[in-house]
Amino acid sequence: MMQSLSEMVRYGFFRRALLAxxxxxxxxxxxxxxxxxxxxxxxxxxxxHAGLAGIALGALLGMxxxxxxxxxxxxLLAFAVTGSRRRAGLSFDAAIGIFQxxxxxxGVVLLSRHGGFSRFxxxxxxxxxxxxxxxxxxxxxxxxxxxxxxxxxxxxxxLSSLGEALSRSxxxxxxxxxxxxxxxxxxxxxxSLQWVGxxxxxxxxxxxxxxxxxLARSVRQWFWLSxxxxxxxxxxxxxxSVLISTATGATVVLFAFLAFLxxxxxxxxxxxxx
Length: 274
Hints:
- Helix 2 runs antiparallel to helix 9, helix 3 (41-60) packs antiparallel against helix 10 and helix 7 packs antiparallel against helix 9 (174-196).
- This protein has one domain (2-268): ABC transporter involved in vitamin B12 uptake, BtuC (Orthogonal Bundle), CATH 1.10.3470.10.
- The chain is mostly helical and 274 residues long.
- The protein is built from 12 helices and no strands.
């Protein structure tokens, strides 16, 4: 086994995939704390599935790399969902359901019309082992941009989750905070989609944060544990997927779920203690 692990690291594609995990997993872990706290788990899943429409539009426009269209469409979805809540008085779940189903239908229609399903199937399950240097640079830039925005939003979002009136009393606009978070989720999910996959992106956001919540005794611990769980699951899932020849994103999710089950045991043990 050790020999196999040492042999993996010698390959450039594996080293690039490992570096990608070290960039993606902390982003999704940190983002998961905000998503769980603000009950936006459904939205992160909606962005992933609605990304099909962005991919289809990119293909329709003749783009060899549809990432720009994917990110742009995801940001548009964030504006549409939050804007409809404010102007049409829709509940968050209703707004997400309406725009997600419409976007997925649009993506399916366009991809089926132009035969793009097979071409873009990697977006469904992810293909982390195919990542190249230019895409790693893209992820690095995303990480650098993510950190200050996340830091700006985190305390304000926690305050807003306690009550919009309290948030307004501190001079904050709950709608702008929600919009900022929706855009942040949309961009991170859209950029990560090709390597993580539509089918598992939500789990990689939610599971580390949910696991960390079971273990943490403070908000600070919750944040760092979420990053640690996400990163650890990512590394184990990457090695495991190469060893047994399985999809990397899905294998990472299984390790994250095992961590979640372990955290439930720890939580129950603590609650049963003296």
